[in-house]
Specification:
Layout (H helix, E strand, L loop, with lengths): L1 H14 L6 E6 L7 H17 L4 E6 L11 H6 L5 E4 L23 H13 L10 E11 L1 E4 L13 E3 L3 H9 L3 E3 L7 H6 L5 E4 L1 H6 L8 E3 L5 E9 H5 L3 H9 L3 H26 L2 E3 L3 H20 L4 H17 L2
Parallel strand pairs: 1-2, 1-3, 6-7, 6-8, 9-11
Antiparallel strand pairs: 3-10, 4-10, 5-8, 5-9
Keywords: Signal
InterPro entries: DctP_fam (IPR018389), TRAP_DctP_sf (IPR038404)
Organism: Nitratireductor aestuarii
Length: 334
């Protein structure tokens, strides 16, 4: 009798048009209170759920609760452990390779324009391969990375012989061109410890990452020459997306793509500026903002890094030129 009543309740719900929300698992390797997770990713998830007409819930799994290693995030989505994840492609070299063009020095000047240009590269068909295997929700970049170190860095020659960390091959090549000893394999989560133990003298970094991962507590000197941005992705398992009800897919689409890249970039730029102020006030590091003449010396030293990136790819020059044009296009649209 109880089984019949339960079956009747299910039929009644179906006949009444009641829908049951699908739950998506959104993985972030950041602590839940970190800015990107708490002020960009989580509000995005809430907006999508609210627009889904009751068909969708998005549950945030921050702090590595589905997988602690930042390099693990992509595999979580591929294996279906997470439905959505915030991914740093530099931790999985060889994947999303075209997007590493944003890591080249003196291309990206800010997160907003850089992120819009990255999405334009997707929309115009320049980014293929792994980009086509997922439902892309956001393709974006940080503000340009610069030098954070435990000693003063005024000009390129000051980098000679220093053990310096970067998150991926392209920025490691930037360090190599400057005469530093490039060190890979150190994730943001272990950066501060590596510096405090003297394993490295610093890293290519930007303000938000420095504070989020406590590197600001051990870095004493910064030189803000724009040495290449960090590409970032918010992506979704494509099969999971395609299996969702139409209302859920429409809600995701409404807040994804160019809209998400635009939102991410504006928020990141705003927060990076306030983070710089906070770090300077709290820790009082030396900060060198190179003048025009100094910038030209950094650019000259880094020509080999750009040439190496272009030469290593069959379509390297085409991607490089297209990204430069995309940056000009989004700048002209403002």
């Amino acid at each position: 009798m109880k089984k019949l009543l339960a079956f009747g309740a299910v039929l009644a719900s179906l006949w009444s048009g009641t829908t049951f929300a699908e739950t998506l698992r959104f993985s972030s390797f950041e602590p839940p209170q970190a800015y990107v997770t708490s002020n960009i990713l989580t509000p995005w998830a809430e907006k999508v759920a609210a627009a889904s007409k009751g068909t969708l819930e998005i549950q945030m799994f921050a702090g590595g609760t589905l997988g602690r290693n930042p390099a693990q995030q992509l595999k979580l989505v591929e294996d279906g452990v997470a439905d959505i994840a915030w991914v740093i492609p530099g931790y999985t070299p060889g994947r999303f390779d075209e997007g590493t063009v944003a890591e080249l020095p003196f291309m990206v000047t800010e997160s907003h324009k850089g992120s819009l240009a990255m999405w334009k590269m997707v929309a115009d068909g320049h980014f293929k391969g792994d980009y086509e295997k997922f439902k892309l929700l956001c393709v974006c970049v940080s503000i340009p990375a610069f030098i954070g170190a435990t000693k003063e860095i005024k000009e390129p020659k000051d980098m000679s012989g220093l053990k310096m960390r970067a998150p991926g091959p392209t920025q490691l090549a930037v360090l190599e061109a400057l005469g530093a000893v490039p060190i890979g394999g150190i994730t943001a989560a272990t950066l501060a410890e590596s510096i405090s133990r003297g394993l490295i003298s610093g890293s290519l970094i930007e303000w938000v990452a420095s504070e989020t991962f406590s590197a600001d507590q051990v870095l004493t000197h910064y030189n803000t020459a724009a040495l290449g941005a960090t590409p970032m992705l918010v992506l979704m398992n494509k099969a999971r997306y395609e299996a969702l009800p139409a209302e859920a897919r429409e809600a995701i689409d409404q807040y994804s793509g160019e809209a998400f890249s635009d939102y991410f970039g504006q928020e990141f730029d705003r927060y990076a500026a306030s983070t710089r102020e906070r770090i300077v006030e709290k820790h009082k590091p030396q900060v060198i903002d190179p003048d025009e003449a100094a910038v030209e010396s950094w650019k000259a030293a880094l020509v080999p890094a750009t040439e190496k990136w272009i030469a290593a790819r069959e379509n390297g020059q085409a991607i490089y030129d297209a990204f430069g044009n995309a940056l000009q296009a989004v700048s002209g649209a403002e």
